Amino acid sequence: MKDIMGMMKKAQELQGKMQEFQQNLGNVTMEGRSGGGLVTLTMNGKGELTGIKIDPSLFRDDEVEVLEDLLIAAHKDAKDKVEAEVQGKMAEMTAGLPIPPGMKLPF
Length: 107
Prior knowledge:
Helix content: 40-55%
Strand order of the largest sheet: 1-2-3
CATH superfamily of one domain: Nucleoid-associated protein YbaB-like domain
Number of strands: 3
Order of helices and strands: HEEEH
CATH architecture of one domain: 2-Layer Sandwich
Number of helices: 2
C-alpha cells in the first residue's frame, strides 16, 4: 500500500510539473539554419514559427527554388531542436517514475 501512495504522490507532482512545463513552452526558442546561415528560422517550444531571416543574396529570380528548399531545411532544423529540447525536459521530469519504455509524454 505504501508503494501505491508513493506513486500517487509522484504522479501528482509530475502533473504539476507538466502543467508548468507546458505553460513555459512558449518561452523556449530555437533557431534552425540552412545554407550555411543564409536562412535562419526561429521557433518557440510550441512549434510556432516566430521569426525568419533571409540573406539578401537569395533575393534573385534564379534563386527562388534554392530559397524555398532552404526555408524547408531551416524549419526542419528548428523543429528537430525544439523536439529534442522538449524530450530532454520530459525525461528530466519523469526520472524515477516507472513509465513504460517508448511511452511519450505529454499524452
